[in-house]
Amino acid sequence: MAASASPSMRERVTSLDTDRFFLQVPPVSHTGMGTALDAYLRAVLTRLLPPEVLRSVLADLEPFGYRVVEEVEGLGQEAEEQEPWLRKFDKWGKRIDRVETCSAWKKLNEISAEEGLVAIGYERDHGEFSRLHQFAKLCMFTHSSAIYTCPLAMTDGAARLIEYLRAQKASISLPPNVWTFLEEAFDHLTERDPEEFWTSGQWMTERPGGSDVGYTETEAVPQQDGTYQLFGFKWFTSATDANMTMTLARIVDQKGQTVSGSRGLSLFAVKIKEADGSLNRIRIARMKNKLGTRALPTAELALEGSTAYLVSPPGRGVATIAKMINVTRIYNSVSAVSGMRRAVAMAMSFGVNRRAFGRSLVHHPLHARTLANMEVQVRGCLQMTFEAVRLMGLSEVDKASKEQSSFLRLLIPVIKLYTGKQSVWVTSEALEALGGQGYIEDTGMPALLRNNQVLPIWEGTTNVLSMDLLRVLRATPDALRVWFSRVQSSLDASQSTASVNSRVEDARSLLTTMLEQHVQLSRELLPLLSSAEGQAEVEMRAREFSFGLASLLGGALLLEHAVFTHKTTGKNSPPVSTCADVHTALRWCHLALQHHGGDLPPKAFDAKADLEILASELEGPLLAKL
Predict the structure, then answer these.
(1) Is 259 within 8 Å of 250 (Cβ atoms)?
(2) How far is CA 349 from CA 343, 408, 432, 598, 617, in A?
(3) Closest CA to 432 of 350, 329, 527
(4) Residues 393/130, Cβ–Cβ less than 8 Å
(5) What's the chain's average pLDDT?
(6) Which 8-state DSSP code applies to residue 273?
């Protein structure tokens, strides 16, 4: 007689049992108890903000964290599923080139205004700490919002540029109608009323090239009223549905000539739509079919005499956009951190709830080790990014010292290239940690990986930014000394704690070794910049050097954080978070030295440390199961 399935199995198969998810408890995308405000972000803010500012900021972040989970999350998923499209003609055959977006995308715009996701940085209710408040909200919002922070980044960049121009008004000669437009634009870009809020694009990329804007072909023809008409083709325009944009073009002189190269470029502001809603002599060729960020409207378009306002001195467009790019690169880093946090949160909750080979995945030492190493990367990247945010806040209210300003100029390209690259690696590891389920679109992990892949590309690829770092060092050789001094200050501040905590002393020892290695490497490489032959060698090692600087600073900031929690939460019986912070700093330095071929001591990592790192980020039922 042939064997047959048991009655219980036959019943389960024939019923298809579609109501029972195969996992005991599905993974969540946030480690907080129903909120996007996770434990480590809260801890970083506790270290960086004065107590009275912290109380005020948390009073805003806590309800916003629930709004992200309960409202923004669903809107983001809807926007990912309903991609923007181009309506070229109206029903009577008139060419209109209207970018159509779904209601969820429009609602995300409204929430951005209501929550002050740009405005907070300019209201400055907390002075130099306002940027920390703003970027904490952005970090919570980004990867639940289908990357709506991309248009917000360019909006913030435009607002910062206009604010800078207003501060320099006495020395900048612009026609009255230009100042009128800029004042109007600034008010709209920093508005909290959704009906009045504007977003801005940043249209720089053309067919001849992206990072090298010196090949820009667009021309600007002067008009009698002080405006210009732009003629050209923009190959990649994100936030095509924005209200305005900043763009580069070459001014045509009275002889019909333009100046070639970067020195011939000027910066222009363009209002995208006329008062009647029609486009400002813009013809959209097609929407871009991108790997990720598919909810974000991105198009190829032609400027066919678009009215524009010159907002930089003629020929100083590239220098002027630096104010914008610094802002958008920090947004890029915050987006990377946000994406990593989401990915690791899902991998952690999956590992806690999913059973395999007789126990939860997280209780398999190798899996716990993998998750802990990912969490360490998230924390190091968060620390470096928020250090840049802190310094930007100081700079914008003229409280940054000369050394801090020099350090920030070097820090921005370093964190952008490092966090962008790590976000792809961490997200790929997290997807793998979910096994086959991670490869299924419904989980959101494939979209998260695709979206994060843009981060090493947008606002400068890894190699372009590594070269930018060399340009900074040529222009301000003292910047590297400041960098090393910043690391040394962390070592000095941790000395007293190291005397009573052997793990802190271990971390200090490794960080000291890293510092010595990088000081020696800089002594070998930097003198070579003065010769053509030597410059080629330095360029070949620029990426390695840049990543090394990031590893060094990440270790220093994690050590600072560990010392802070040790001092503020008690030395005798430290809570899990204190132990985890020390383990995190130590693990970061171990991994950095391992990556650069250094020798690791026996038992460099222990299983208990892995679980303590994970436990410090989990809350509620997830923590109980760990």
Answers:
(1) yes
(2) 10, 36, 14, 33, 11
(3) 350
(4) yes
(5) 91
(6) B
- Per the rule left: phi > 0, alpha: psi between -120 and 50, beta: everything else, 444 is left
240: its two tokens: 């095509």
Q: Residue 526 has what pLDDT?
A: 86
Total Cβ atoms within 10 A of residue 62: 13
What DSSP string runs through 44-71? HHHHHS-HHHHHHHHHHHHHHHHHIIII
The residue among 105, 124, 346, 128 whose CA lies nearest residue 242 is 105
User: Would you state the structure tokens that stand for residue 104, as one six-digit string?
Assistant: 């969820």
Mean pLDDT of 521-526: 90
314 contact partners, CB below 8 Å, separation of at least 6: 251, 266
Pairing relationship of beta strands 85-89 and 200-203 according to DSSP bridges:
unpaired
Tokens 């467009």 belong to which residue? 317
CA 434 from chain center: how many Å? 24
Helix, strand, coil in percent for the chain, rounding step 5? 60, 10, 30
Query: 102 with 78: CB under 8 angstroms?
Result: yes
Taking the C-alpha atoms of residue 366 and residue 372, their distance in angstroms, rounded to an integer, is: 10
Q: Are 382 and 419 in contact (CB under 8 A)?
A: no
pTM: 0.94
- Distance in Å from the first CA to the final CA of the chain: 48
